[in-house]
Amino acid sequence: MQLNNKMMAPIIIVTLLLHAMHNIASSKFTIPEATIDDIQEAFKQNKLTSKELVEFYIERIRKLNPIYRAVIEVNPDAVYLAEKADQERKDKGPSWCYGLHGIPILLKDNIATKDKLNTTAGSYALLNSVVPRDAGVVKKLREAGAIILGKASLTEWSAFRSIILPSGWNARAKQPLNPYGATIDPCGSSTGSAISVATNMVTVSLGTETGGSILCPSCNNSVVGIKPTVGLTSRAGVIPISPRQDTVGPMCRTVADAVYVLDAIVGFDMYDAVATRKASKYIPKSGYLKHLKVDGLKGKRLGIMRAYPYFGFANDTKTLNKFEKHFDILRQKGAILIENLEILNFNQIVSMFDSKFIALPAEFKLALNAYLKNLVASPVRSLSDAIAFNKKYSDLEKINEYPQDIFLIAEKTNGIGKLEKEALMNLTKASKYGFEKLMNDNKLDALVTPYSTASNLLAIGGYPGISVPAGYDKNGGPYGICFGGLKGSEPTLIEIAYGFEQATNFRKPPTIKT
Question: Average pLDDT in the 469-498 region?
Answer without folding.
Answer: 98
